[in-house]
Write a structure and sequence with these properties.
Blueprint (H helix, E strand, L loop, with lengths): L1 E6 L4 E7 L2 E6 L5 H10 L4 E5 L11 E3 L5 H18 L8 E6 L3 E6 L6 E2 L8 H9 L8 H7 L5 E2 H4 L12 E3 L2 H5 L11 H24 L9 E5 L1 H5 L1 H13 L3 E3 L7 H9 L2
Parallel strand pairs: 1-4, 4-5, 6-11, 11-12
Antiparallel strand pairs: 1-2, 2-3, 6-7, 7-8, 9-10
Helix pairs in contact: 2-10, 3-7, 4-7, 7-9
Length: about 280
Amino acid sequence: MKAGIDCGTSLAKFAWLDQGQLRLVSGAETYVPSILDEMRAAGITRARMTGIGLDPTDGDVAVTRSTDDPVADELTLQADGVRRLLDGQDRPEGDFLLVSIGTGTSYTLVPASGAPRRFPIGNAIGGGFVAALAAWQAVGRSEIEGYASRGEPRDIRIKDLVPAKAGTMEGEFVVSHFGKDEVMGARVLPAGASPLDDYCATVVHCAAVTVIRDVLLLAMIPGFAADNVVFVGTPVAKMGSLRGHLALYAQALGKRPHFPVNGEFSAAIGALHAAD
């Protein structure tokens, strides 16, 4: 019996078949030793591992890794896993840009057929950035979305300075993250609201805007333009506010956004199918 393991920078994700049913488990919700116990109980003896994080196994599973570039291996298997997920969901026609938001963010052009093409420069703004800034305010990873979903981003946008731009794409452009508190004064909060609501909403919005700006710039590079953009990663899966920002901005750019169910497990699924 085999498994696929994605060793992310912050989290490990696991995929295996248990009596013909795909089992997907993340270290985000389950203590890794408990996952390994469950794998042993399912008869898992070997695994294909990908990712540049630390090996989470304890020696009971025979692990194989690619001997080639580990970054290229991870993105190739992730692209395969996404294709498999989309086959059962909403696979876009033609090429698509795969945006993987984990601790950081990577970008890969996945053609309708053939090998994926990764963009060599990712972005350091991702889930790690959001979680770290939240932690400075004693907000845990699992709490971020609760606060952010209730808050209002405290960013100055073009429409705040030029009201005539309201309702336009240009009006939504951000002039300064957190700038409203500095320039326009702190917001009067409604009864029962917390300043952390706006703080977390702004941090999440900052990550979304940064990613979308990359998508816009990549569209100008030959070989990376695609009408469809597929967003995956644990922050995407866990934060509805992040998905909302990404969808809104992607559509404003004329892109069709996709958020496959279980997208955060795509590299683990690709590794599972690549296991010997």
